[in-house]
Amino acid sequence: MANTQNEDAFVAFERVQKSYDGETLVVKDLNLTLPKGEFLTMLGPSGSGKTTCLMMLAGFETATHGEIKIDGVSINNIPPHKRGIGMVFQNYALFPHMTIAENLSFPLEVRKIGKSDREAKVKRALDMVEMGSFGGRRPAQLSGGQQQRVALARALVFEPELVLMDEPLGALDKQLREKMQFEITHLAHELGITTVYVTHDQTEALTMSDRVAVFDDGRIQQIAPPDELYESPQNSFVAQFIGENNTLSGTVKQISNGKCVVQLDNGEEIDAKPVNVSKVGERTTVSIRPERVEFDKTRLHADAHTLKAEVLEFIYMGDIFRTRLRVAGNDEFIIKSRNAPDQVRLQPGQQIEIGWLAEDCRALEA
After folding, report:
1. Mean pLDDT confidence for 311-317
2. Mean pLDDT across the chain, nearest whole number?
3. Which of 259, 226, 265 is nearest to 242 (CA)?
4. CA of 237: how far to CAs of 206, 243, 364, in Å?
5. Cα–Cα dist 36/163, whole Å
6. Pairing verdict, β 9-19 and 65-70
7. In whole angstroms, how far apart are CA 303 and each of 55, 306, 356, 359?
8. Confidence at residue 70, expressed as pLDDT on a 0 to 100 scale
């Protein structure tokens, strides 16, 4: 039965709500569709509802209201083991008394797949994650990164069309985590698997996903490709949660032709792009990314808007310099500049002028 509402939706949440106590909604009226083969990340702080959504899709939680469909068929009453979904969790959940090959063979046995087929599939899955020679070992004989690879292979071994991952790389060190991020994304795209990935790590979400759904307070605040989410946040929560962000408070003085003038609380006026403001006199928070701010006069665009600033701190971070400034009464205003041979190094106490283009400055809700 096709889902007439969204013909190309492989996974669909339709008006889904979840409450544990009958009063507080952890997930509020969620509508979300994923096409086949998409890598979607659910990103948000603890308690935002992202993991609950994943658990409802997996079948470990029941939706209080609404419907969840896979390939047009409602799965509300289908038990987890019959949904044909691969799963990878942070704690690996490997059976300690079984060898790696037996761990991978288990989901195939449950699906009544014959012995020779099982062996071929196990070998293929282990080879996929470069663990081909580890079949005879026990989980305790593997490192954390190796165990996570096995957990991934076990989720892929029965060739599911949908794989769910809940913070799968949380326990790994930074370098291994970054390597695994690329491997997982590469595998998912190569195999054409639809993937729903849950994390609170925004860098992970930006580097891995086709689209990211940013959750807060049980709702999706914005869903978009990573670059759009970063460059064009729709509200203050998304702007603050994704990447680093500078904010200045003020009041809208005028709006016309897709631009607005904001009077900052210290009296200075700047131009901004009105995103979440609609009328004169409205309070607003303007948001500017640190890498969009320029302090080198030779690089300032002719149309750039300039403000006076005082250097509070200049930090060398290898590939970039990070400068903390006092701007319009805000002592936490950050500029990031590339470590280039001609880049000016600033000194604390120095008075400078900074600038940016109006389109890089977004007027959001207060």
Report:
1. 94
2. 89
3. 226
4. 16, 11, 10
5. 12
6. antiparallel
7. 50, 9, 8, 11
8. 94
